[in-house]
Each structure stands twice: as C-alpha cells, then as structure tokens.
Amino acid sequence: MNTFKHALAAVILLASLALAQEAPNYPPPTEGNFIAHNFKFRSGEQLTELRLHYRTFGQPARDSSGHVTNAVLLLHGTTGSGAQFLAPQFANQLFGPGQPLDVSRYFIIAADGIGHGNSSKPSDGMRAHFPQYDYDDMVAAQHLLLTEGLKVDHLRLLFGTSMGCMHSFVWAETYPTFMDALMPMACLPVEIAGRNRVWRKMLMDAIRNDPDWKDGEYKDEPKQALRTAQDLLVIAGSAPVLMQKRQPTLDDADKYVADAVESHIAGLDANDLLYAVNASRNYDPAPRLESIVAPLLWINSADDFINPPELGIAEKEIKRIKNGKFILLPISDNTHGHGTHTWAVAWRDSMIEFLNRTAH
Questions:
Q1: What is the DSSP letter of 341?
Q2: Which of 28, 150, 256, 330 is deepest in the core (most CB within 10 A)?
Q3: Which pTM does this prediction carry?
Q4: What are the C-alpha distances in Å from 230 to residues 9, 191, 333?
C-alpha cells in the first residue's frame, strides 16, 4: 500500500509540475477594437468601418518627446489571430519576468489582421462582397492601428510568423524607419510560386469548385471543400520527423488525420479561408530588399514544408539586406515544421542576442 501511495504521490507531483510549466507567468492581456473609418483598399473598394482587434500586454513607455520606446508588434499567420501568441510554447517562454519579451518591460501588441480573428472579415455578413484585401492592405491597417489607435509611432521590435513573416518584409519596405529591429519567422521574401503556390491554389480551387459554396452565398458551410482545405493545411504545417515519431503505425496516422481534420472544420468559414489564402496573390518584396535598413534577424527551420531549404532562396536574398542575418534551424526535437515559429525554445537564444545587439 505504501508503495502505491508513493507512486501515486509521484504521479500527482509530476502532473502538478507539468501544469505549473503550462500556467501563464505573466498578466492577462487587455483586448480592444480600433475602428478605421472609410478605409480604402488597393482594389479601390472601401469599408465605412474597418474593425481591427488587438491584445496588449504591459504599458507603453515614452521618452521626453512622448515617443513610445518599448513597443513590440506580433503578427500572426494565415487563418490565425493574435491569440496564437498566448500558446504556452510561445508566451511562457517569452513574456514572464526576466524573459526576452518581459511584459513588465515591453508594451506588446498582438493584432488580428484584416479577415482574421475578431477583426472585420467576410463571415461578419458581407460574405463574398467583402473587399478583396491583400498584404499591403493588411500592413496599412496595422500601421493605422498603431499610430491612430494606440498612439505608437515607433517599434522596438516587429516579430512576424508565416504570413506575419511576409508582412514583416512589407513593413520593412513600406515603413523602413518605423522599427529598431525586425524578426521575420518562417517565410521567403519572394513571389509565392512553385509548390507554395500550388497547394494554395489547390485549396482555393477546392472551395470555389464545391457546388455548395454557391459563389460565397452559402447558408451552410461547404463541408467537402473545407475537408479538402484542412487536408492541405495539415500537410503544409507538417513536420515529417515529428509525425513519424508521433504516428509510428498506420492506425496512428489514420486516427491523426480524422482528428486533425474533423476537429478543425467546425472552426473554419469557407469565405474567410478563401480570402485569407488569396491575400498572398501579389506578395513580392524581392525587388526592394535593398531598401530595408532596420536590423533584421530572419529564421526558418529545415523541416518547413512551405519554405523548404533546398530552394536556396533565403541564402541568396539575405545578401541583399544590408543589416540582415539568416538562420536555418536544423531539424531537431525542438523543431515542429512550419510551426517552429511559435515554439520559442528553438530560437529564443537567438532572439536574446538580437535584442541585445540592437539595443540603444
């Protein structure tokens, strides 16, 4: 009996330690909405009111001239939102006391992009009549949120993952002196082509070619289109070594597919997804990379399906960025394919060195 009690106590202790590691070690965020009035899109369309949702941590610090000196902007990936940065593998590694983005030192802003999260999006009611936004529109809206909504005229750091990584390059070229430093994670600064375009085109075609989509005017979600779309999203975000370890048998792999697809379909809207993926259609910062002046630390992982290292694009393009550095993380127990961008343990030390190097 004593042996059983000791074993049970050990299990409880281990469970308690695991929970403690997962528990947030930082205050909860403040959430809000900024309304951009008469927002004009590059397509020529306009919204009388564009809602931009955001989360903030900490408080802005201002110098004697009133300029904010400690703001950090976090930009999420396609179909995501600022909520992704609350994940323990990200926030618990970065936001706590003494950590790289300690919220007692930094004013952290996690914004929901146009068409994502709680910002204005097609599923609010306009459906396929929602403006056809692109990455330039999304960055312009982020700039408005900062300058007009939050009264932030400068960033200590701009950090972006996946789509947010691509937004980082757009930011760096559009507002080159707005930030002290840039940290794009998991993307390439070139036109989306090759396999990256192919899987996106397949996803969009699956939605548009489903009769139940009804040109975006459906009452019930086109389920088959969403299943196909989610299948493609699973593959795009996959890490082969990690998946082989976690699904070592046929039955394990089949169960993973069923769980990963069915559990996520309920949270998808076909129009929102179509718009979000289509927003990348004219992304191409390559012609202006030399205009980037802020120090830039760009990190990809070697097991990224979307940005495979064998293309050699990053090693070529980083040479055109005067103050840029590129790191390719080798495959390890700390990498998670494309999603490595949110697993801070894989790159936190590089962030610390970068913040120290770019400090004034």
A1: G
A2: 150
A3: 0.92
A4: 42, 24, 25
- Dump pLDDT digits (tens) for 24-81: 899 999 999 999 999 999 999 999 999 999 999 999 999 999 999 999 999 999 999 9
CA 195 vs CA 95, 299, 335, 348: distances in Å: 35, 20, 21, 29
Q: Say which CATH architecture domain 195-277 belongs to.
A: Orthogonal Bundle (1.10)
Q: Angle at Cα 98 formed by Cα 94 and Cα 99, nearest 5°? A: 15
Q: Which residues pair with 32 in a beta bridge?
A: 54
Tokens of 54: 């955001």
Whole-number Å distance between alpha carbons of 330 and 264: 29
b/e code 104-121 from CB counts within 10 Å (16+ = b): ebbbbbbbbbbbbbbbbb
Q: What is the 3-class SS of 39-78, one letter each residue?
A: EECCCCCEEEEEEEEEEEECCCCECCCCCECCEEEEECCC
- The contacts of residue 232 (CB under 8 Å, 6+ apart) are 199, 202, 203, 206
